[in-house]
Structure formats: structure tokens, C-alpha cells
Amino acid sequence: MQFIDINAMLGEWTPKNLFLRTADEMEQEMKRVGIEKAYVMDTKAWLSELTAGNNAAVQAAKEHSMLSPVMVMTPLLEQEFGGREGAVEFICKNRIVAVRLFPRDHGYTLNPWNIDKLFTLLSDLRMPVLIDEMEHTGGLESYDELYHLCCEYPDVPIVLLTPGYRSARMIYPMMEKCKNFHIDTSLLIAYRAVEEIVACFGAEHILFGTRMPYLEPGTFVGRILYADISQEDKEKIAYGNIDSLNRQIRYPY
């Protein structure tokens, strides 16, 4: 069974000696555990400089066939991305597969008054948006923002990355109400969480993700391979749901 990883990063992150530091090392690890494709951003786009980081992710994907580029964006389309046309050109030219947001670290909110221009563009493109649970501003009130975001832009697939076991009482009602709301498998570690979500809301809400290189990916492969769900649902989680979102992206050219 193939796996597509929607939650991976390249570049420096912490002072710690992470076990994967280069695209070559990531590809070797992916081959070892059976992951065929990884959606990657470069941490420079998060921690230091947007343009350099986004270009680094694109370059890594050009040089490594197992990687697909993720673009980090902010609400300032005109000032940081050459306007709507500049952003679309970069996305289409480099076949960006998802956009990742860091509202807390980059200093903005997910309220429509702040992100409407960006999400109008992403809605037109049907572009998946990745937001880390620890990054979507923090605190229970942040889920109100996330819920309204899903409702306001129903054509944008929203993917909450690294949801912890304590988030179930927030994310379960969102799955019930929002078809465009998804989570990834990294940190989905509560007892039989995968089985419960599939039984209650369907496998379509779960996307395979590992959080490489901070976490070891083999654990997450095993969690899906040995989950007590149907083979069809395993395949949806492992690659089918991500592939479906990718095929819905509307590149203008």
C-alpha cells in the first residue's frame, strides 16, 4: 500500500540534532518505511524569510522526485507575494500542492477581515491549507476561528495538523459539521482514535501525516497498516484522500 505524507519539513528547526536534515536523508527514510511521496515546506519560510524558504522547497522538489512543494503564505498578498497574479504565477509554475499557514508566529488571525484576500484566492484554486494545531493561535477560542474559516470558505480544504488527544471534543463536532475539515495522523495517538473517527465520521476526514523530521515516520505507517478498519478506509487515509484533494486543485495554467 502506498503512502503520501502531507506533513513534512526540510531545513533547520531547533538546536536539537534531528535525525533527518537533508532531502536525500528524507528520501532514504521514506523508502525504508514505504512512503512514496511527501508534501514538504522549508522551515526558512516559517522561521526567517518567506521567499527564500518557499524557493528552497520548490528546489528540493525539483531535485527529488519523492517530494512535492508546500508554500508558506500570509495575508499580505501585495506586499509579500507580488499580488494575486504573482502568487498564482508562483503556485502554477511550481505546481504547489498545498499552502501552509503560521498565524501565531507570523502575527495575524484567521478571522475573515484579516485573511479574506488570501482565502478568496485559495478558494478559487481549491488549494488545501495546512495549519498546525499548536500554531493556529492557541487556546480554545482558536477553534471558533477555525470553524468559521471552514464555514466561510467551504471550497478550501482545511487540514489541522498534529491534533493532540485532548482536542477530540473540539475536532469531532467540526468533522460532523464541516465536510472541508480534515486532520492528519501525526499525534493522533489516543486509544483507537483512528477507528473511532472512521466509524463516526468516515475515513475522508483523515489524511496521512508524520511530522518528519521531528518524529520517526514508521510509527505512523504502522498505525494505519494495523488499524482495525477496512482495507478501503486504510487506502483512503494512506493516500486516497490526499490524492483526491490534489486532483481538485484548479491551476489556471
Write a concise keyword list for the protein shown above.
253 residues, 8-stranded parallel β-sheet, alpha/beta
Description:
The chain has 253 residues and is an alpha/beta fold. The chain is 47% helix and 15% strand. It has helices at residues 23-33, 44-47, 50-63, 77-81, 83-93, 103-106, 112-125, 142-152, 168-177, 193-201, 218-225, 231-248, and strands at 4-10, 37-42, 67-72, 98-101, 129-132, 158-161, 181-184, 206-207. It has an eight-stranded parallel β-sheet. The mean pLDDT is 93.
Quickly describe the structure:
This protein is α/β, with parallel strands linked by helices. The protein has helices spanning about 25-35, 45, 50-65, 75-80, 85-95, 105, 110-125, 140-150, 170-175, 195-200, 220-225, 230-250, and strands spanning about 5-10, 35-40, 65-70, 100, 130, 160, 180-185, 205. An 8-stranded parallel sheet has the order 1-2-3-4-5-6-7-8.
Topology as H/E string?
EHEHHEHHEHHEHEHEHEHH
* Sequence stretches where pLDDT stays below 50 over 5 or more residues: none
The Rg value, from CA coordinates, equals 17 Å
Query: Shape, please?
Result: globular
Largest sheet: 8 strands, parallel
Mean pLDDT score, rounded? 93
End-to-end separation: 32 Å
Total E-strand runs = 8
How much helicity do the residues have?
Answer: 40-55%
Helix segment tally:
12
Q: Strand arrangement, largest sheet?
A: 1-2-3-4-5-6-7-8
Work out the strand percent: 5-15%
**Which structural class fits the helix and strand makeup?**
alpha/beta
